[in-house]
Amino acid sequence: MVIENKLVTFDELKASYSRYITNKSDLERIEKAYKYADKKHEGQFRKSGDPYVSHVLGVAMILSSMQTSPDTIIAGLLHDTIEDTDTTKEDIEQTFGSEVAFLVESLTKITRLSDFHNSDFQAEDHRKIFLAMAADIRVIIIKLADRLHNMRTLQFQPPAKQVRISNETLDVYVPIAHRLGLNSLMSEMQNLSLYYLHPDIYNDIEKKLQKSYNQIDSSLQFLKAKIQSILSTTNLEYEISARVKSIYSIYKKMYIKNKKFEDIYDILALRIITKTETNCYEILGYIHSSFTPVPGRFKDYIAVPKPNMYQSLHTTILSGDGHVFEIQIRTKEMDETAEGGIAAHWRYKEGTSYDPRSEQKDIEARLHWFKDFVRMSYEGRDDLNAKEYESQLKEDIFNANVYVFTPKGKVIDLPNGATPIDFAYRIHTGLGNSLSGAKVNNKLVPLSTKLKTGDMVEIITRKDAQPNSEWLNIAGTGFAKSHIRKYLSKLNSEFTKQEQVDKGRNSLKDSIRERKLSTSWNSIEKLLTDQKLFANFQVKDLDDLYFKVANKTIMPNAILDFLNINRSSQEALQDHLEDELKKANILKKKISSEDAVLLENGDSALISLANCCTPIPGDEIIGYVSKGRGIKVHRKDCPNIAHEHARIVSVIWNPELDKTKKYPVDFVLECYDRNGLLVDIMNTITSYGAGLTNISARYKANKGVTVVSVTALIDNASVLDKLFTNLMNIKSVYSVKRTSH
Ligand code: MN
Questions:
Q1: Structural domain of 531
Q2: How far is the centre of ligand 1, averaged over its atoms, from the C-alpha of 78 (Å)?
């Protein structure tokens, strides 16, 4: 790689942003910001010997090439002023407004947060940086531009720092760029990091790439011409170009996936850019009918975009002369998103009412990205719910203004006003719960002492110590408070158990009243005190039984059914049921193959399949006589009819049933999320000839799994069985279950 240190001049920057910013006051503000930064950084120099302002010009140039807003470019120009010069947030606010001041201040916080840890930089610290950045998407974009420019000028740093910065870039910044779909920027960061971490590997791949490019380029040109001649017979508008796989992507395939260079077939790919989504599929059709596609290599990211919004069709074909090529087909808009991700999507457009707040909201909703960042640090914190965790961590980190030390020298960031209680809970929940005293700088202090930056804090614990409600007034962080509350409510729950027991007893009494039984409560309570009954419901004693009735783990009807004390009421209902059947006139005579389900005696009736448990032929079923709406067929194990005894009739599947008909079935898969998961699931379902009418995925933070809900049209239960077996074989799917609503 030839790394050149090309300095950006202000005139070049101006030419760049003037392409899309023409508003006079915006232009003046940007120019003013440049002069301001130039003056503030006067006398400061980069390791390269260039004036410091060359760095902020470089950063602003990257931002301008992504067509970011004027405020973002201004903040890019000013991003190091608070940290490296005598400028204050108030100065910036006065001259450039609160929006710019907020951005620069956030960037300064990130710089401080990362510098503090320096040599002993750990995963947890990375996460804090992610979260601090997640405050505003513009902060992330500026920070990424800052990092990219530092990577571009890394040759002037000492070797040890080159390695540290490159590792940090791969660990922290590349995943964010990937998540946001900023692919060009990510790719450049990856290539530069590899260059500094493994120069010989980098050079080796670069050489191989050059050599192989010469070899396959002629084949590629041949294929390109062939495709052009096929498409020229249509009136489709398109552009066709070749794209070369990045050196880092090749490195990953070779060294992480253990492939030989020769076995990577998508080093060169053809990219076809066309006008509309429909055109994409049309072109795909022409290509698949003229070349042999490689089975299993077709990916439809248009119908199912990647989480970072990437959309394209991918297919791999045999070119006919012994080469295999990947072809990517997409619209111009999709192509821009593929290269620039959200930056392309939320490009600044003059004349439209641009609002950074709604942009932020839109991005959070579309990418779920804040949740993703939180997810990484949430693991193992199941004592708090994810939402609580998210909002508190957000709040605590953005308010972090005090940096204190543990006795071992680790830095802990806390908000202003934090006390030793906050410190203890920040380190570990157990430490907070057993806290009995604290030392600050080796002196015993009251727990209400406000900590200051630089304090060394030591927590004294005692086995029998426990939080008290007074601590809620002393603790300053939401984190500590919620842990204290949690502990106190657990203590209190012991007192409320008796209330629960009473509640359970009452609801059992109510159910008996509903069944119009004449048996007295006293004799029922005697019946209840029975070891067999306890064993059946897995309870210790009567109180435990009532307790579980109160929190609905055991249904009162199930207990009464177990005691078999419902006979008289059931008989009464049976009569009523027969009336209902007659009154609704639901018995009809003629049987057709249209009737999926018949009465047990083979008679046809007004019968329909229940939506709650979606029974299909082959399932064990049971009929429920609804009031005036005929018979609803449920699966035998459907919880919605588990407690029905009356109104139940036996039904059977029609033996003459129309075999070509398909029935909707609802089911859910529990999976660990990964790229391409939904596509694999969809492919498996459709390969069964099953129609897919609905598929949606939801991430459950408390379980750390992704739940995919599906409605598919299926022939019968044995087909469904086979489908389930195949779904279970998909990587990272670990459970498939039918659902009842
Ligand atoms: Mn910088």
A1: 488-562
A2: 9
